[in-house]
Request: fold
Amino acid sequence: MMAPRHGERERPMALEMRSECEKCTAALPAGSEAAHICSYECTFCRACAEAMDGTCPNCGGELLRRPRRRV
Ligand SMILES: [Zn+2]
Ligand SMILES: [Zn+2]
Reply:
């Protein structure tokens, strides 16, 4: 007999490390110094971030260089 399953709610894509620019799909591997993110984790390469004046086109947030993490 099967127990009802809990925990099947949808998960928002929080804090997911994206590996490519959302605009030009340039590769942005973990640890890449070119990666820029906004507060909502929209991810862009440096060229796009600079071209957009450091402002996220999706949410208007400020694009900052992505902190490096352990791989
Ligand atoms: Zn780009
Ligand atoms: Zn954004």
Summary: The mean pLDDT is 83. The CA atoms of residues 2 and 24 lie 47 Å apart.
